[in-house]
From TrEMBL:
The keyword Lipid metabolism does not apply. GO terms for biological process: pantothenate biosynthetic process. It is an enzyme of class 1 (oxidoreductase). Keywords: NADP, Oxidoreductase, Pantothenate biosynthesis. Residues 219-359 form the Ketopantoate reductase C-terminal domain. The keyword Nuclease does not apply. Pathway: Cofactor biosynthesis; (R)-pantothenate biosynthesis; (R)-pantoate from 3-methyl-2-oxobutanoate: step 2/2. This is 2-dehydropantoate 2-reductase. It catalyses: (R)-pantoate + NADP(+) = 2-dehydropantoate + NADPH + H(+). It comes from Saccharomyces kudriavzevii (strain ATCC MYA-4449 / AS 2.2408 / CBS 8840 / NBRC 1802 / NCYC 2889) (Yeast).
Amino acid sequence: MTASHRTTIHILGLGAMGTVLAIDLLRFTNALVVPLFRSQERLAQFQRTSGNKVSIRKLYLEGSPLLSYPVERSECPETFSKKPISNLVVTTKTYQTKEALTPYLPYINENTNLILIQNGLGVLELLKEEIFTDAKNRPRLFQGVISHGVYQDKAGIFNHAGWAGMKVARLPWTDEQMIQKRSVVADDAANNSLVELLTEPTFAKEFGIEHSTYQEMLSGQLFKFLVNACMNPITAILDCVNGEMIDSCGPVFTSIIDECLQILRVAYKPLFEYQEKFNGNKEYPDMDINAVLTTSNMVSEVTRIGCDINSKNSSSMRQDTLFLRDIEIEYINGYVVRLASNLNLDPNSCKVNKTIKELADLRLALNRSRSINGDWRKE
Ligand SMILES: NC(=O)c1ccc[n+]([C@@H]2O[C@H](COP(=O)([O-])OP(=O)(O)OC[C@H]3O[C@@H](n4cnc5c(N)ncnc54)[C@H](OP(=O)(O)O)[C@@H]3O)[C@@H](O)[C@H]2O)c1
C-alpha cells in the first residue's frame, strides 16, 4: 500500500474487540479508522469523555502501559456522511448485529468488504436470510475468529489481558463455496483492500493475523465454538469460576460436545469429508481435522484450555449474567438447536443443547428477578 493511499475502515461496535483492533490499526497502519456509534448521545459521550481517543491498557506488556490514540472521524446514524462504505468491521455482540447494521444498509453494496469479528455461529445465516436477501447486492464477507482477551474495568478502561491473535478468512455466501482453493487466499491478499490492510506485515505481526482458506478458519472456529458451548453456559448456570469445576465437568461436557458434533457434522459435511477428498491435492491446503474434532479429544481440550489454562477466568457469559446483560446463547448452544430444526433432524437430536440454553436463559432471568425482588434464599 502506498503512503499516499489511505484505506478507510469503519468499526461498528467500539467495545472491547472494536477497541483492541482500532488501537493496533492506528498504531501500525495509516488507515482512517472511523468508529460508528449507536446514537448521537453515545457519539457525544465518546467525544466528550474520551476526548475522541481510543485507549487500552496492554496488561500482558511489562508495566501495562495505557495506549491512547486520537480518532480523526467518528459517526452515528444521524451524522453519517451517506457515502458508500468500503470496509466495515462488525464488533457488536452477535445479537446486536441486525439492529446495528440496519441504519448503514443503504451504504453497503457489492463493493463493500464486511468482516464479522464475533464469537459463536449463526450470524452468517442471519445476514443471508434476514439482512442481505438480494443475492446481487451482497457485500464481500469475511470472518475474524479472534482469541485476544479484552475486558472493560470498573473505571471504563479496556484491558487487553491475553494476546492470542485472529484467524481471518473469506466467508462463503453459499454452502457450495465452503471449500476454497489456496488461490482464493492469494487473490484476496493481492487485490482486496481489507485483506491487504489486515495482512500488512507490521500490523499482522503485532495483532497476530493468520489469513487462510475458509475451511482452515472454520475448523478453528468450530473448535472455539465447542469451548464456548461448554465453558460459557455451564459457568453461567453454576455461577462458578472456570477452574472450580475441573474435576467434575467431564460428563456434562461430553453430552454437550457429542451432541454439537453430531449436528455440526451434518451442517458442515464438506468440512468433515475434507481430509479424504482434498488432502494431497496441491490446490488445497492439507488439513487434519478428523482427529481434532472428536468428542473425546474435545472434552479433554475444553477441560485443559477452559478449566486448567484459564482456571482463574470468569467466562463472558457468567459476567453477563452477573451484570444482568443479555447473553449470546442464541449464537452458541441456541445455534445448534436452530441447525437441527433447519436440517429437519429429529427434535430429540438437540435436547441437551436446548436444555442448556434454557437453563442459561433461566439463570439470567433469575439474577434479574433477584435484583428487583431480592434473594429469597436469604429470607
Ligand atoms: N471481549 C473479549 O475478550 C472477546 C474475545 C473473543 C471474542 N469476543 C466476541 O466479540 C464480540 C464483541 O464482544 P465485545 O466483548 O467487544 O463486546 P462489547 O464490549 O459489549 O462491545 C460491543 C460494542 O457494540 C456496541 N453496539 C451495540 N449495539 C450497537 C449499535 N446498534 N450501533 C453501534 N454500536 C453498537 C456497544 O455499544 P453500546 O455501549 O452503545 O451498547 C459496544 O461498544 C462478541 O461476539 C464476543 O463474544 C469477545
